[in-house]
Amino acid sequence: MARRFQSLNGMWNYMVNGKNMGLIRVPFSKLCVGQSECALTFDTIQDTPRTFLCFEGITYRAEVELNGEKLGTMVPYSFYSFDVSGVIKPRNNRLTVRLWDMNLPFGPSEGWENYGGIIRDVFLMGTDDLMIEDVIWRTTFGEDYESAEGEVKVLLNGGDGCVSAVLKDRMGFEVASESAYSESGHVTITLPLKHPNLWSPDMPYLYTLTVSAGEDEIIQKVGFKDFRVQGQRFILNGKPLFLKGVCRHDMWGDQGHTLTDEQMKKDLRMIKSTGCNFVRLVHYPHHRHIIELADEIGLMVSEEPGLWWSDMHNPETTSGALQVMERIVKRDRNHISVAFWLCFNECRFTPEFLQESSAICKELDPTRPVSGANCMDIEMTKELFIKNGFDFYTMHPYGVELNSVHGGVNGHTSLDIILETLNDKPLLFTEWGGLYVFENPKLFARFQRYMLDAWKNPDGGRVLAGSCYWVWADMYEFGRGEHACFDGILNEGLVDIYRNPRVNLDVFAKLMNGAELEKDIQMGQTISPFTMDHPEELTPVDVWEGQDQRAQAEAYRQMLEKSTPQEGYEHKKLRRLSHGPALPDDYALLGNLPVNLRKGQPLVIRDELVLPVGTKAGAVYFLGNVSMPWGYPAYGEVGDEAGQYILEYEDGSRKEIPLRNGIEITTALASVGPSRIDPIARKATPAIRYHYDLNWEHYIIQLFETRSATESPLKQIRIQVTDQRYTLLLYGVTIRK
User: Fold this and answer.
1) Domain containing 414: what range?
2) DSSP alpha helices (H): ranges in 389-499?
3) For the domain that residue 139 is a member of, what is the CATH number?
4) 628: Cα separation from own chain's centroid
5) How far is CA 305 from CA 58, 90, 106, 321, in A?
6) How far is residue 113's CA from residue 477's CA, in Å, rounded to a whole number?
7) Cα 257–309–435 angle (5° rounding)?
8) DSSP-derived 3-state class of residue 74
9) pTM (2 decimals)?
10) How many domains, in total, are found in the chain?
11) What residues pair up with 643 in beta bridges, in sequence order?
12) 154 and 265 share one domain
C-alpha cells in the first residue's frame, strides 16, 4: 500500500506558563514566552499497519506526549519521526507538545530575534509493516562525464524484501532501473546511465527516483552533479566556478520562521534573479521546501546547525549542535543543491568540536566538502582548518576599506593579506558587507569588484573562490542598536524585512551579472520644478567665461580640506569628501527656468569675484547662495553677514544685496554629522538637492532672485566675502531681460 499522510496543522489549544491562551494555529512562530504547551485532540483517518508522528521543526526544545505516553525530546529546527503504531487510537487522540524557548544551553541565540513555537508542519504518516526507512543517493562519473552511476543505498524497517529503484528523466521516460533483495535490512542498487544531464545553476536538471519495497514507495528528485575542491578553487562538473552568494535567514517580517510557500518561492526567485548561484542558509536548518526550491531553480546551498558565538566548551551546547548537524545531513544529503556543510558560525569552539562535527558530516555524507563559517585570526584559521580536516577556508572580512577589514581578534588587516595567507585551499568569504556598506553603493561596489576580480587571478596568487554578502534581507534584532540596528531592525539587507529592494540590490545584481554600473547608482538628485512667467525672456549667463580655471580648482581643493572633519563631530575625523558640492550633471533647465549649470565644481569665492554681464537685466537669478561648510543651520548665527552681491550698471549706479546667514544664504551641506538637515533661507528657494552616496555627501543649491532698480544695462556683478568663515559658491546666473 502507498504511504498515507494526515496533516495535523490547524487550531491547537495553547497554554503559556500554565495560563490558557485559547487557540493557536500550528505551525506558528511567537515571541519567546519561556514555557508553553500545545495540545490537540484528533481522530485518525489512517488505516495502516504502522503510523508515524512527524514534526518538521520546533524551537527550541520540546517534549512530545501522545495519549499519556512520552515519545521523546526534540532539538530545534530538526525533522523528527516517532513510531506511534502501538499508541495511536482511531478516535480522541490527545497530543501534547511542551516547549521551552528561553534559558537553554543550546537553542536561542543573540544573533537574531528568537521565536518559539511549532514552527513547521506536523503530520501523521501511515505505512505498511515493511517500510523504507532511508534512501541514500550518491553519484560517480566516467571520463568527461560521458557516463555516470547512481548508487542507491536503501535501509528497510520491518524485515527484508525485494527493493526496486527506477530513474526517470524530466519528461517521465525511464532511463535506468534495477532490483535486488535486501539482507539484514540493507541493499545497494547501482543505476548506470549514459550521457547524464548534469545539474548546475545554469541548467538545474532533475531526475525522478522511485524506490519501492513491498507496498512502500518513496519518490525523490535527484540529480547528477560533481562538486569538489581543487587547489584554490571550487570545481563544478569539471569546470572552475566562483560562488556568487548571499546569506539568507529563514525569517520574514514579524512571522518568525513560519513562512508561506509563496514567500519561500519569492525569496529564492528574487535571489536567483540577482545572478547568484549560491545561498548560505544561515545559521540553522531552513524549511525543507527551501532546499527543494533550490534544487528546482538552480541555487547551490550550504547548511548549519544553529550556532552564533556559542561556547563550545559547554557539553550541552556541543551535544545539541552535533544532533542538529546529524539530522540536517540525513534530511538533505540527497538534495542536489547542497554544495557543502558548515559546522559552525563565529564560535568560541574547541578543536574537539571541529573534529567531531567534521567526522559526523563525512561519515554520513563522504561526497561533500566540510568547513565552518569563521572569523578567527588568519594564522589560527590556517592551523586549525588544516589540522581538523576542513576542506576549504572561510573568513568574514567586514570593513570600511579593502585594506582595513576584520582579521580576527588581533585587529584589522587587508583583503590582499588574507588571500596571500590562505592560499593552499579554496577561500570563501562566508560573510562580508553588513553595516559598513549598507546604503553605500560606492563602497559596496568597491568590495564586490575586488572579490569578483580576485577569482580571475592565476593559481598560486590571490585567488578567492567565492563570496556571500551579509545579508539578503533585514530582520528583527533588539538589544544591539546602532550602527547596524535601527528601530529594532538589523538594517544590512539587500532587501527589507518584506523583500522591498534597497539601494545596493541593483549594484549587487549588475555586478553579479557582469554589467557596468551606471553613474546614477551612486548619485541621487531632486530638482525643484520651477514654473517661471515668460521663460522666453530668461537668458543664462556663462559664469565660467574669463575665470582662472587653475586657481578655481586649487581654491576648491583647499575648501574641501578645510571642510573635513565637520566641527563638533568626533567620529567624522577620518572622513574624506570624494566629490564635495560638485554638480553630478550638466543642467540646462530647472523646471522651465533656463540655466547654464555645468557638471563639476562651482565657482569658489573666498574674497571677491567679478562676473561680466553687459546686458539689460530686469531681474537676476543666482544659483548658489550657499557657503561651504559654514552657514545656516549648521554653523553661525542667523543674520550674520557673510558677504554681498553688488550689481553695477552702465550708468554708474549700483545695487547692494547683503548675503546674510539664514536669510539669503545657507550652508551647502544637506547632512551634518549623523543627520540629514534641511537648510532653509528666508529669501531663497531650494533648487537642487543631490547626494553621491547616502552615507556621506548630501548637498543643496539655493535659488535667489533680485530685481534691478534701473533701466540701465547691467555691466557686471561683484560678489564679495566680508566674513572669512564663509566660502561662497556660485553655480550659475540667469538674467531676465
Assistant:
1) 231-521
2) 415-421, 441-454
3) 2.60.40.10
4) 36
5) 14, 37, 10, 5
6) 5
7) 75
8) strand
9) 0.73
10) 4
11) 659, 721
12) no
DSSP label of 587: E
Same domain, 135 and 50: no
Assess whether 471 and 576 both reside in one domain: no
Grid coordinates standing for 555?
581654491
Closest CA to 464 of 492, 414, 490, 428: 428
- Final residue before a domain boundary, out of 202, 222, 242: 222
pLDDT of residue 531: 83
Element (H, E) at 358: helix 351-364
| 691 contact partners, CB below 8 Å, separation of at least 6 | 523, 524, 525, 670, 671, 697, 698, 699
CB 374 within 8 A of CB 381: yes
Residue ending a domain, choose from 222, 248, 271: 222
Q: At what angle do helices 315-332 and 288-297 cross, to 10 degrees?
A: 40
Instruction: Please indicate, yes or no, whether residues 679 and 579 belong to a single structural domain of this protein.
Output: yes
Spatial CA neighbour of 522 closest among 698, 701, 399, 694: 694
Element at 433 (helix H, strand E): strand 427-433
CA atoms within 13 A on the CB side of 216: 27
**Which one, of 374, 451, 375, 384, lies nearest residue 419 by Cα?**
451
**Residue 179 to residue 172: CA distance in whole angstroms:** 19
pLDDT digits (tens, 9 = 90+) for 182-214: 999 999 999 999 999 999 999 999 999 999 999
Query: Residues 477, 517: one domain?
Result: yes
Interval 373-429: pLDDT, tens: 998 889 889 998 999 889 999 999 999 889 889 876 567 899 999 999 999 999 999
Question: How far is the C-alpha of 244 from the C-alpha of 274, rounded, in Å?
Answer: 10
Residues 95, 165, single domain; the answer is no
Alpha-carbon distance 373 to 393, whole Å?
9
Same domain, 203 and 264: no
Report residue 214 CA to chain centroid gap: 47
Strands 50-55 and 122-127: antiparallel
Grouping H, G, I as helix, E, B as strand and the rest as coil, residue 170 is coil
User: Nearest 10 degrees: CA dihedral of 422, 425, 428, 429?
Assistant: -10
